[in-house]
Amino acid sequence: MEMANYACYNVSFSPSNNIWMADDIMIKHVPLLCLQIAYDILVSRLFYFVLKPLRVPLIIAQVLAGFTLSPSLLGNFEWVFSLFYSQYGILTVETFANLGIMYYVFLSGLEMNSDTILRSRKKGTSIAIVGIVTPMLFGVGFLALQQKLIDKNDVFAQTPKENQGKAYLFWCLALSVTGFPVLARILANLKLLYTKLGKDALTATMLTDAYGWVMFTLLIPYSTRGGKPYLSVISTLMFIVFCFAVVRPILTPIIEHRTRMNTWRKSHLLDVLTGVFICSYITDSLGTHPIVGAFVFGLILPHGKFADMVLELSADFVSGILCPVYFAGFGFRLNLPFLWKQKNVG
């Protein structure tokens, strides 16, 4: 029988009232979160400004900013490390990081057009197939190289035989996925978005992303759940079909009518956020991952003026604030010196 390991935080708190057994978030959580967000934005913008002559996209600068929050770097500054790596700091950033990736994936689905995927041209489809098959071949080589370089006595042990198939699929998924919004912004900056090359590239990216999400939906239940993971896959696929067959026909006329009558307000964005959270909660409860539901919800919403309005209202907030927080959470788990100390890795 497999035993699960859990990491628990021993947090002391002083209830601010007699109703909620919790600390006052305005005293401990919010100020620290604001400080962390300010740090993430400042450092990511600094990297972006320095690397701008190289035409590096903003997301790369945000990844580099997340690296600066790794324990190996902040550990040299004891007071900063104790501040950022307190229980309150880690838990709050993790929560906002999950919200950030959920909403970022929702916007990715909103920018994509499912009709374009279904009616893709031969050239775009051919490019997508090459972009999928090639990483799958490289995935085999990288997995074999990993097994050869990493010693059995190292902390990063050899992948068990029963898990090698899952490891191979993870390599394929990581190598084949292309961020559709990132590519769209790069093509726009290069003024190639509306050229034939740009359209073919976007079509291929849509197809590879669709493949990636199918792989993700299948892989997560089989790699993280015991018992009968196929039930999670089947129930998630049924939910996706329900969204396209039932939810989409209901929402599309309502949204298009309000768009034509120009009755949309900024406050209605809360309704969209609620839909993102509901779909994310459902797919998480079904055993896959919250971002699958967020992506599907973005994909079923109508495109055009409504999508442009949602993107205009929220894109800057997501890419400028939530994404840096997500990469900050990634940086919290990164320990590069520990990796390089392993045998055969350096």
TrEMBL record:
Keywords: Ion transport, Membrane, Potassium, Potassium transport, Transmembrane, Transmembrane helix, Transport. InterPro entries: Cation/H_exchanger_TM (IPR006153), CPA2_transporter (IPR050794), Na+/solute_symporter_sf (IPR038770). Residues 42-339 form the Cation/H+ exchanger transmembrane domain. Belongs to the monovalent cation:proton antiporter 2 (CPA2) transporter (TC 2.A.37) family. CHX (TC 2.A.37.4) subfamily. It comes from the Eukaryota. One of its GO terms (molecular function) is antiporter activity. It holds the Pfam family Na_H_Exchanger. One of its GO terms (biological process) is potassium ion transport. This is Cation/H+ exchanger transmembrane domain-containing protein. The chain crosses the membrane at residues 83-106, 127-147, 167-188, 200-224, 230-251, 272-297, 317-336. GO terms for cellular component: endomembrane system; membrane. Its main location: membrane. It is found in: Membrane. It is a multi-pass membrane protein.
